[in-house]
Write a structure and sequence with these properties.
The chain is of the alpha/beta class. About 35% of the residues lie in helices and about 15% in strands. The protein has a domain at about 80-255 and about 275-315 and about 375-400: Rossmann fold (3-Layer(aba) Sandwich). Helix 1 (about 90-100) packs across helix 4 (about 120-145) and helix 4 crosses helix 5.
């Protein structure tokens, strides 16, 4: 049984080591003997085949000159067709795993901090988080294939740890996966429930990740960016880039504001009393995401050399979402503001469990009326390229860190 044990918050920032030293080879600087070989004459007119060589670099260690092999540039093709293949089979496997392994009860402290949708609102989890984990799994597997080794992966904002646990146990068991979340309570839950999977769960804020520069091949974040203020989001992107290796990938899934907040009401200033989801500091439009990642600069250089803003699509869930929000959408003006405040009072006085129970019952009633099941929501997830023109329910940003970019 999970028990939350309160404790003092401890910073886990480690010293960053940005320089490496070349160890002595121990080779004695003795001149090798000259070996005499007989010169063979080449027949007239015979062509000499070109010699293929691995790129090399020459360095000196003491009096010995050594020729070292340099690592060839290896990158994941962001337009690889396999990344955008239908999700049905993989999301079906996730649904079966999710249904047959119901997650343990999530403590109310964790729910208050925005995690635990898998138990409180499973319809939203299956329509937003689950497909993002499946898509991230594709990039992790392809990263391992092109590197020829197990990739080192970080999830920022891992919440209860369910997603990173699934990836480690069902998709990429060879990968070295860590999860970070600002919530001590969420990390305690993750370690209690999923710690045996091999995922390392750590409590720390996204803006000060406790890792060395260039430590990870891939960093992903699922439905987290919207919980960070616009000012902090800039630092979030820089910090993610700092812990990425050159050429590494960052994957970020976040709601499309047009099909979330804007369906409820217009709220350009992100006023708390007009938010559809109170914990969402800022939801993004397509151009805002391009700007956030495209304008990310450190030491005068762009942090990312390739950026894609792809689309997660779930039409049945969108139908339910649009229907529900048009009913809830408040009127404008003084009376509308008064009505919003009045309607929020009884909701805020309700126990959290009762709020979620009523919300889930209302959603499931609409699902039954429209013939939409949980399984249908899960199997209806799609993933499209930015160039496909599909309207996103959630955006899926994929950005590659610049090669040979030194962050200090």
């Amino acid at each position: 049984m999970y028990k939350y044990k309160p404790g003092v918050y401890k910073s886990k920032i480690r010293t960053m080591s940005e320089e490496s030293s070349l160890e002595s080879t121990g080779v004695s600087p003795v001149t090798p003997p000259t070996i005499q070989t007989e010169k063979k004459k080449r027949p007239k007119g015979e062509k000499v085949a070109p010699v293929s060589r691995v790129p090399t670099a020459t360095v000196e260690v003491g009096a010995v000159r050594k020729e070292l092999r340099t690592e060839q540039k290896i990158t994941v093709d962001l337009d690889n067709k396999s990344l955008f293949a239908p999700l049905e089979e993989e999301i079906g496997q996730y649904y079966e795993w999710f249904s047959s392994n119901p997650p343990p009860k999530v403590p109310k402290e964790v729910i208050f901090q925005g995690a635990g949708t898998e138990t409180q609102m499973p319809f939203m989890h299956l329509a937003t988080c689950a497909p993002a984990y499946v898509i991230a799994g594709r990039y992790i597997k392809q990263m391992g294939e092109v590197l020829g080794r197990a990739p080192k992966v970080l999830e920022v904002g891992c919440g209860t740890g369910i997603g990173s646990n699934y990836l480690k146990t069902r998709v990429a068991p060879e990968a070295d996966i860590s999860g970070v979340d600002f919530s001590d309570e969420a990390i305690a839950y993750a370690n209690e429930c999923y710690g045996k999977s091999g995922v390392k769960y750590i409590a720390e804020r996204a803006q000060r990740l406790p890792f060395e520069n260039g430590e990870f091949d891939l960093v992903f974040s699922v439905q987290v960016l919207e919980h960070i203020s616009r000012e902090e989001a800039v630092e979030f992107v820089k910090e993610v880039a700092r812990v990425l290796k050159d050429g590494g990938l960052v994957l970020v899934s976040t709601p499309n504001r047009e099909l979330c907040q804007d369906l409820y009401c217009n709220n350009p200033n992100d006023d708390s009393d007009r938010r559809l989801i109170p914990s969402h500091e800022h939801e993004y439009y397509l151009d805002e995401l391009r700007t956030l990642f495209g304008n990310a600069v450190e030491n005068g250089s762009s942090l990312f050399e390739e950026i894609r803003v792809n689309s997660q699509v779930n039409l049945p869930n969108r139908k339910l979402w649009e229907f529900g929000l048009t009913k809830l959408s408040p009127s404008e003006g003084f009376l509308g503001k008064l009505k919003r405040k009045a309607s929020n009072v009884p909701i805020r006085l309700m126990p959290l469990a009762l709020q979620h129970f009523l919300g889930r019952r209302s959603w499931e009633t609409r699902m039954k009326a429209t013939g939409i099941s949980y399984k249908k929501i899960a199997l209806s997830n799609e993933y499209h390229r930015e160039t496909d023109g599909e309207k996103a329910d959630s955006y899926f940003v994929v950005a590659r860190k610049q090669e040979s970019l030194s962050l200090k």
